[in-house]
Design goal:
single chain; about 40% strand; Lipocalin; about 180 residues; eight-stranded antiparallel β-barrel; mainly beta; globular
Length: about 180
């Protein structure tokens, strides 16, 4: 029995230099938990090309972004993002239990959340929400398509099409892998 074990160990370690055992080889994967670290607002000559919730944000790279979390499993995704430029209010309402429209907007307006299924084909991910802050997005046939770029532990997503049509100047969101 000792001889069989020693032979198995010797066989497993007798790989040519630079060769990796098949069980150790892994393709880069977008599966995991990702924290938002940056968004890039593209310059465009036609403001009508901007189809995003960041119309109030100046063009360029924003690195001081509010929290965002993206979870991708084998077939499902979930993303929750605070889209505000500044932190949302954490203080109580002026009149307890009776928020004004402005107070509600400051807390809930700059916020996006959806979860559902996805398909990945090449550098394109197609998201189909099953639940969303925007109820219209969770109805049958709705989708969002984004370009995917994975550089080590940094995932970039840029929307280019939704069920409403093409997006000429999509905002790129960048995430860092946390798990």
């Amino acid at each position: 029995m000792m001889m069989v074990t020693a032979l198995a160990v010797a066989s497993a370690t007798a790989l040519a230099p630079g060769q990796v055992a098949r069980s150790q080889q892994r393709e880069p994967s977008i599966r995991g938990v990702w924290r938002k670290i940056e968004r890039v607002i593209p310059a465009t000559t036609d403001p009508g090309n901007r189809v995003d919730p960041f119309g109030h944000v100046p063009v360029g790279t924003q690195t001081n972004v509010q929290p965002g979390l993206l979870i991708i499993t084998a077939k499902h995704y979930s993303r929750t993002t605070d889209t505000a430029v500044q932190p949302r209010p954490t203080t109580g309402y002026a009149v307890a239990g009776t928020p004004t429209i402005e107070e509600l907007q400051a807390r809930w307006g700059p916020f996006a959340a959806n979860a559902g299924t996805y398909e990945l084909s090449g550098d394109t991910i197609t998201l189909r929400a099953l639940v969303s802050k925007e109820p219209r997005d969770q109805t049958g046939g709705r989708f969002a398509r984004l370009r995917v770029r994975l550089d080590g532990n940094v995932l970039s997503l840029t929307p280019f099409e939704t069920s409403d049509g093409r997006i000429a100047a999509g905002v790129t969101s960048r995430y860092v892998r946390v798990e």
